[in-house]
Amino acid sequence: MEADIFSQELIKMRILQICPKPPNPRIDGGCIAMNALKKGLESEGNRVRTIAISTSKHPNIEGANVGDYSHVEIDTRLNPISALINLIANKSYNIERFKSRAVEDEITKALKSESFDAIILESLYSCPYIDLIRSISKAKIHLRAHNIEHKIWAELSANTSNPVKKWYLQKLSTQLRNFEIEVIGKVDGIITITKNDSLWFESMCNTPTTTVPFGINVSGEFEKKPYNRVFHFGSMDWKPNIEGVNWLVKVVWPKVREENNEAQLILAGRNMPSEIISNFELGIEVVGEVSSSDEFLNSGGIATVPILSGSGMRVKAIEAMSKGLPVVGTSLGLTGIGAVNNENSIVADSPNDFANAILHLLNSDEKANEIAQSGFYHIEKNFSNKIIFSELNNFLNHKI
Residue 295: which domain range? Predict the structure, then answer.
């Protein structure tokens, strides 16, 4: 078998990672987090085999299945009839779209070809296959919860004025919550990205839970960058990002321009909605998907994280801070990173406070550099991959 090319003495654990989208290319926070998990666990001496679900929204562009990576293409596009059937049956259509016989076959093939010590299901959308895994493998199953999924939809519902849309979003939230509670009773361990998420899971079940934040390898020393532009960088096929950017563009940014009519806002990220693309007024430039996140971030600027709903950790905030950039974000946007207002970042929840924070950094290069430098060293100290993945390795080995 393929696994025989690895020396058994050198492998600590054999891990199967199942992803609801390809970890590469690293085009959004979820992809970055899944890729980092694989690389981090491998750096600890484990062998990680990855099965990814490829969709039209998140296609596989890394080539054919090779080595420890394979992908399965499925159709998760919205089907109104299927959505209605699931609504009547009171099942989560969000989850049902990720069920596929082809994915079942790929998982079955992997489980029958070799034995695994642990299986990591990346997010709730990889969890429809728990029963299948149990029927074939004795490996411990762990849910890696990127967010508490139902809370995203509940908050989107709360922030919506349309009564029909509000009802439907709340229904989706309730269905996801029911599935989430069912799942956490089936898995052997839960890995969250923030402590707040861990507290919710611990209140709902007795399943062993640990917090493993997103880690990063900070390279080199802090280098001052230009802070003369403001930007948002994130995938725009995630509803909290769409909601947050609309708030930034329509509510916050006009307040910035009232005080500084030369301020420039750059919007970067894949799948930019048409209503945002068409807004070229008020010093806003939409660049869409960028070829290199490193190159984009290294060019400098003030990063914004205007998240109004959801949970989990915003990977882009950590990336920006690790590149030596000042970050302005809402409390939700900076959850889980140890944000200290006016020290390693600026936390602002109202439109006026958010606009004033941006203006303050634009007007004071010294203050922007102070925040950027403090944030850089905070990430270097607290989000080192070496520390994070050593602790995760112990959790998977049932040592903590």
Answer: 230-382
Pairwise CA distance, residues 345 & 272, whole Å: 26
Residue 225 belongs to a domain:
no
Sequential DSSP letters for 156-167: HHHT---HHHHH
Q: Left if phi > 0, otherwise alpha if psi is -120 to 50, otherwise beta: which for 191?
A: beta
Residue 398: burial class (beta carbons within 10 Å; 0-12, 13-18, 19+): exposed
In terms of domains, do 264 and 323 share one?
Answer: yes
Question: Which DSSP category does 111 fall into?
Answer: H
Q: What are the tens digits of pLDDT across the range 148-197? A: 989 888 888 888 889 999 999 999 999 999 999 999 999 999 999 888 89
Residue 153 falls inside a structural domain: yes
pTM: 0.75
What's the CATH number where 157 sits? 3.40.50.2000
Instruction: Verify that 162 and 266 share a domain, yes or no.
Output: no
Helix (H, G, I), strand (E, B) or coil at 27: coil
User: Beta-carbon neighbour count of residue 322 at 10 Å?
Assistant: 19
Distance (Å, whole) CA 345 – CA 334: 9
